[in-house]
Amino acid sequence: MPGKVAKIGTFSDWVGMFDDWRKEIGVNRDEIASFKFDTLYGAIETEEIQFGAFKGRRKWENLRQVPTQQMRDALINLIVYQGDTEFASVEQQRHLFESAPTDWDRKAITRVMIEEMRHGWQMCALLVDHFGYSGKVEAQKMLERRAFENKRLLGAFNVDVDNWMDFFTYTDFVDRDGKFQLQMLKYSAFAPLGRSMSYMLREEAFHMGTGNDGLRRIVEAGVIPAWLIQKYLNKWISSSYDLFGTDNSSSAHWAYVWGIKGRYDELQNQHEAQLDELNDYNRHVYRSEVAGSTAPSAAGRGRSSMPRRASRWMTRPTSST
Length: 321
Ligand SMILES: [Fe+2]
Ligand SMILES: [Fe+2]
Fold this sequence. Notes:
Elements: H1 11-25, H2 30-33, H3 69-93, H4 103-130, H5 132-142, H6 164-186, H7 191-221, H8 226-243, H9 250-257, H10 278-291
Helix pairs in contact: 1-4, 3-4, 3-5, 4-5, 4-7, 6-7, 6-8
Bound molecules: fe (ii) ion (2 copies).
One fe (ii) ion binds next to helix 6 and helix 7.
């Protein structure tokens, strides 16, 4: 990559940088410092490419099997953007430990943060292990950008999440967007990327459950006025719509044609993909999920989810800029 010299030769060099990053942003609490991070690969439905121009061929296990340089570039780009959001979210939430409303919440945010770090770790492991020199440079840059210096790649990930209302709304809606992105990458023709998604998706369910459960408790307590809750919903639901990307996106078009990123419901969807409306399509599927947001809490508390349907607070998606 132009203008940047890799300081890392192996993944363990990267791990050293990751340890420094945790200390530097101030999240290296005991439970986090002692956590043993791992690269986890899970199962994918099939070894066969399921959509796009290479449908029916065997998925690619390494970069040499990826047919063109443009496709390799698109893949590295997808992985870099995904990883960047993972580390960014930890930076955004870094001040919330002290103000946790209960011990249970403090434990929940610690788990959320550990898992977001692991997601970033997983993306960097892919970059370092599969993408040669460029991958190493990108994995290093991932730990050099800072949300609080406005350097993260997507605007929504440069905003501080500075109170618990903000945190619960963020995890219910932005982490849900995360779930959508991960699911779309799970179908990837690049098998190591697809296999990276199973554990990440499982972990994502806990983040969404934490947010949903927190919002339900807030609504039930009846202390925060509806207009204020509405403001937080507006903030993060609109950001989440934007995270699906622009309409008529050529990168989404080609990512689909090349088989590296599918539609959210790719395996159930019987219709041919509208290549120039992919982002808008996925955004609408997301909107439907949120509008019917009565998903049971995954946070393990066994209570019902938000009593009032989130759709009552929602505005319709507009096309993103
Ligand atoms: Fe994540
Ligand atoms: Fe998450």
